[in-house]
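Lecture 7 notes: from sequence to structure.

We start with a single chain of 227 residues. Read the sequence below before looking at the structure.
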Amino acid sequence: MELAIDTSTETAYLVLSSQGEVLAEIAWHAGQNHTVELMPNLVQLLHRNGSSLQYMGGIIVARGPGSFNGLRVGMSVAKGIAMALKIPLVGVSTLEVEALPHAATGLPICPILNAGRGEVATALFQTKKGKWRRLVEEHITSFNGLISGIEERTVFCGEIPEEATAQIRDRLGDKAVFVEEISALRRAQSLAELGWRRLETGDYDHPPTLQPLYLRRPSITISHRRR
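Now the structure, written as tokens:
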């Protein structure tokens, strides 16, 4: 059995899975309260399903991009459990989780998360010759930068700001295919599936060195003068 944790966005969720297939999940609107709500919800999920952390054979965690606070909380809990139980740990891109449900389209898939300041976090994935691939690494870009990088008909998904949707439609026309934001259950299935693919092949992350994928520094940092 695997435990998957996603606290990268305001909607957090926890998943119990078996070889990548969801057995049970719990999702809630965490907002900025990941710190105080994650562990009680984990206890509730385990109790409700008559399970225990001792039954886990691997830990899967969404590593971002996303909320600074949420990522720190989820990553810390995932690392702590993996190290305490001496079980494998894998970190999965939040953008890849958003993209995977649309893999069957065969088109390039551009997942988007609002990064604020008129920017988005994005990447590019596609199924080619039956194999799921990352075409462009996760990065932060402007709306114009996002649009200028699109050369063929592409699926756009994720948390797309309204102003970005309008610009993409105006500039790309029929090249832009928009799909509805996936449900928490489909995100849970995607996270469990992506994590299991790596656990199955022994492609583990090293807990002390696995880091959240922030893509940018927090807006509040220690001043250079204090350093």
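The radius of gyration is 18 Å. Keep this in mind for problem set 3.
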